Structure formats: structure tokens, C-alpha cells
Amino acid sequence: MDTRTLGASNAVGPSISIRIAVVEPDSATRTRLAMQLGETVGAFPSTEALVSQLNGSPVIAVLGPSCARSPGFGGAEEHLLPRPEIGAILISDELTTELFQRAIRAGVRDVLAAPVETAQLGEAVRRVAESLETVARGVASAAAAEAAEGEQGHVITVFSTKGGAGKSVVAVNLAVSLALRSDRPVVIVDCDLQFGDVTVMLKMAPPHTIVDAVQAVDRLDPNLLNALLATHQPTGLRVLPAPLEPAYADQISAAAVSKIIGMLRNTSAYIVVDTPSYFDDKVISLIEESDDIVLVAGMDIPNIKNVKIGLQTMQLLDTPMSKIHLILNRSNSKVKLDIGEVERTLGVKAEAFIPSDIVVPQSVNKGNPVVLDAPKTGVAKALEQLADTFAPQRTKKR
Ligand SMILES: Nc1ncnc2c1ncn2[C@@H]1O[C@H](COP(=O)(O)OP(=O)(O)O)[C@@H](O)[C@H]1O
Ligand SMILES: [Mg+2]
Questions:
Q1: Is 172 in the pocket of ligand 1 (CB under 6 A)?
Q2: Do 124 and 182 fall into the same domain?
Q3: Is the CB of 167 under 6 A from ligand 1?
């Protein structure tokens, strides 16, 4: 088998050598897949043929549609997938939730629909290569994982009773900033189930959404949930997107959202949750279960009025005031609202002041959060300061 070196985009140090192998009994399909992957790929008619050539070094196995159709994925489930040095991608003519779950459970890293586009296949290969490199380098060392075990992730819900207050901007930037600071995973969950725009703000188009997690909720385990998260490549932030269609929102129960967040707590350092601008049973349970609530208020009278009602509702829910962090967005606006007056009206001291700046909509339109896009601006600095409240030290070297 030929060797090809794959470099992970944000890898540290030299790339290790990772081989790519196509496993597909049908010769025409095998050849087509091999051509899509480039000249240096190895092509095998069966799992056994590949297994006989393994020598312990990492291999990305691209399992063709014939494997997807046969029991045990053409022998891969038994002979290939249990090996830690193998990262498998399954290509299937029919992409059902049942097949997806079965494949991920068996240890497949990604499942793609046939016919697969070359760019999509390349992207999947790159992602798997990255995770194999991580394992090979021992970055995710067993010791670190053990030390972190039992350490529950911190859930931060970003909320406002007013649409357009800046919740998503705050949630996305906070999450990105925490992801750059933490050695353990940081996840953003888009719980604005009708109009979620987290993926737009991160310029991502992931294949899965919270709907997939909810549909599998009875059988959900950390591996399956992890496979449904997408990675924001520039920062490593993990993302669970909102549904693509607003109609799905009704099918998602508060209990399902709680279970997903609870499971993420076991595997992540921080879970940042973006929300809609109203209270419903899902938002109420998020508020109850979160460690912290970032309450975003804009600097105009309707905003302050609605935030006041929001605060009163949270008090009725017995939310400890110590959990609530008031953030004043567009706080430099020339709108003749005095910050002291706003704080007195709300009965809470603001913990962060985010100025109004054209770089915010500009960065939103670019799909690059302002803390990355314009880090020297006052807005970015204010958002970084907000992140300081939760993760004061930069633990990750960049
Ligand atoms: N500090 C700010 N300065 C300038 N524009 C902002 C600021 N915060 C938010 N915006 C703009 O306001 C719009 C609404 O923000 P968004 O975060 O989507 O609100 P929400 O999620 O609360 O509905 C966005 O398009 C964003 O560009
Ligand atoms: Mg929003």
C-alpha cells in the first residue's frame, strides 16, 4: 500500500504519515473512489485483504457502498473497526438514521451518502486524519482524560427576552473564546430551535443538527452524540446546530434537551447554549439547569423593559441571582440611556459592557466571530473579558 502524508490544518509539529485505503468489492466503484482520493491510495476488494497488510500504523479506511449493504459492514465491524489505529469512513447508497447510528456505534467515524463529492470525501478524510493524529501523538492522553473524569462541564446559557439583543453574537464569541482557552472540549448548542443562526455566524454547514440527537435520544450515548457534533476548524469549538427547518422545534422536548446537555457535561469543559427570545419549557429547564446565565440587554427602553420582565420571571423560578450575569450590549450607543440608570431600573449590576461597532455585523456577515476577525477592537476585548469570568487563564497554547 502506498503512503501518503496528511497534515491536519491546525496540527502542532510535523504531520505523521497516514495511509488511505478503499475497501469495496465492486471493482468499478472501488476504482472510482480510489480516483477521487488520489493516486496514492490503496484499493482493496475486501476487509480481509486490507487487514492482512496492517502493521499498526494509522490507516483511514474508506468503506464503499457494498460494505454498507452487507452485515457487519463487510467484516469491518469485527476485524477492522476495533483497531485504534483505524479511522473508518462509510459510504452508503442510503443514508438512514438507523444505518448512521449502527455505523457510529460500531466505531465508524463518519458516514457519507453515495455518490459522494470529492470535496466532501476529502473533508471527511482530513477530519479523520486529524483525530488519528491526535491519538497517535497522545495529545488526548489517557492521564489527562482520567484527571478530567468526573469533572462536570460548566453550562452557560445566553438569554434575553428581546430579539436582536445580541444573544447569538455573545454566545458564539464566548464559545469561540472559551474553546481557544480550554484543553478540554467546548461545545455550543443552538437552542434557538426556530431561528438558530450559530452555524451561519461560524460559516459552517454541518451534516447533523440537534434533531438527529433528539431522534436518537433514547439510545443516545456519548459516542453517538460526539459523532453528531461538528467542529469549527479554526478553533476546535464543537457545534450542535439548531434544526434546519423551524417546524422541527415542536418535536423537541425539554426532557430531550436536558438529556443532551447532561451528556455533554460529562465530556466537555464548557457548554454554551444560545436560546430564543422567549420563555418556554425548554428555556425554563435550561435556566434551571445552567450553572450561569448570561442575560443580554440592549440599550433602549423596550429592551430594558423586557429584560426587567425576564429577570422577574427568573426570580419567580427561584433562579439564584448569583447565576445571572447582566451584559449591556451596544453600551456606548448615543441613545441617552445612562448605564447607572439602567442598572438601577433592573436592580442588577452589569458585569460587561459591549460597545456598538460596525465590525460586529461585518464579522457576522463574514461568518467569522469578531474575537477572531477583529481582536483588537473594543467589542472583541469586552467579549474576551466576559470569557475571563468563566475561564480566567489561557490554558491552551496557540
Ligand atoms: N455590539 C454590537 N454592535 C453592533 N451590532 C451588533 C452588536 N451586537 C449585535 N449586533 C448586531 O445585531 C444583530 C442581532 O444580533 P444577534 O446576536 O443575532 O441577536 P439575538 O441572537 O439576540 O437575536 C446582529 O446582526 C449583529 O450584527
Ligand atoms: Mg439569536
A1: no
A2: no
A3: yes
**Ligand 1 pocket, residue 166 CB under 6 Å:** yes
Phi/psi at 345 (nearest 5 deg)?
Answer: -60, -40
Residues of the chain above pLDDT 70, percent: 90
Note whether 31 and 121 are same-domain residues: yes
Domain with residue 318: its CATH number is 3.40.50.300
Which residues of the chain form beta strands (DSSP E)?
19-23, 42-44, 59-63, 86-92, 110-113, 154-159, 186-190, 230-232, 237-240, 270-274, 292-297, 324-329, 350-354
Q: What is the pTM of this model?
A: 0.73
Residues 249 and 380 occupy one common structural domain:
yes
What residue owns the CA closest to ligand 1's atom 13? Answer: 164
Residue of the CA atom closest to atom 5 of ligand 1? 360
Ligand 1 neighbour 330 (Cβ under 6 A): yes
How far is residue 283 from each of residues 1, 161, 226, 333, measured CA to CA in Å? 53, 11, 23, 29
**pLDDT grade for 136, boundaries at 50, 70 and 90:** low
Residue showing cell 482524560: 145
CA 364 to ligand 1: nearest atom: 27
